[in-house]
Amino acid sequence: MSEMSRREAVRSVVTTALGVAGSAGMATWLAQPPRVHARGLAGGKSGLEPIILGEGEHRYEVTHDWGTLPVTHAWGNTHGVCQDAAGNVYIKHTVHASSSSPDAIVVFDPMGKFVRSFGAEYKGGAHGLHYSMEEGDEFLYLCDPNRGLVEKTTLDGRSIWRKTCPMESGLYNNASEYKPTNIAVSSKGVSRGTFFIADGYGKSWIHAYNLKGDYVRSFGGPGKERGQVSCPHGLMIDHRDPTTPRLVVADRSNRRLQYFHLDGRHAGFVTENLKSPCHFDQRDGILLVPDLDARVTLLDKNDKLICHLGDGENYGLRGQPRDKFIPGKFIAPHSAIFTQSKDIMVVEWVEVGRVTLLRKV
Questions:
Q1: Which residues pair with 140 in a beta bridge?
Q2: What is the distance between the terminal CA atoms of the chain, rounded to a whole angstrom?
Q3: Which of 201, 202, 236, 288 has the fewest CB atoms nearer than 10 Å to its CB?
């Protein structure tokens, strides 16, 4: 059965089951179809073999549209992803126009079953999402470039604090110039509890705060020279060398990674095998880099290329309907994590959202 025929058959079953559910509910359901185990592009003879990306020890089976949304929800641009200690997966998205729920944060169990949602105030501005374990308690850090704020919350969305434009830095004429995209929190060593906010869509500064949440300094600033950045979109405390933690920045418009010491001094570049790096995760010495130009990249502990996953020239499809997406190929990876089971979860900047599970094989 073709994909279109399969969808029509499912549509018929759901229509019968829902009876008078109405066209609006059906439109919402169709915005998030059943998950697709990508098949047929891996070179197999039958066209039914699962698609495997990667090579050697880094091979992954592709499942697109992971996670089952209720009919009241429909993905907008899927911008952020993280996982808590219980294995629950949090997805942050801008909310599709057809969604009857305004909630921008959706929580699934490890198998992809919907658990709950919250964060209606982030509709349209949902961007960076960071999970942090602190003294045995779990927190989320949420960035909203539209409203110019960063918020720390509990796992169910209860606010701990909010940070708006750091006017004390002397870098802003007014708060509307500040558009934070992501946050990095130090969880180890003498720097534990300090955090950094990237003003990626604003003036390209990085702001440092201490454990108490007090503003400390700003560094970076717009440009392409050492220590300067252009759209510092994502950032992370890199603990792959436990003796020398550094801040790694997705210096996206400069098409590179830039390393900083935690006091803001430039520490190095990575310029090879990158197009438009967006953000990071790390596990077992491997750096995971979602790249907005249609691929996900794995780098070893020395930042040498391991492999690209889902590489293609498909960025132009990001505003297209879901049936135009190519199985096994990414369009615009915006964030990605290693899961507890050593799989990879990827969310993409596409208008109808896409969550892809790369299951390690």
A1: 131, 153
A2: 27
A3: 201
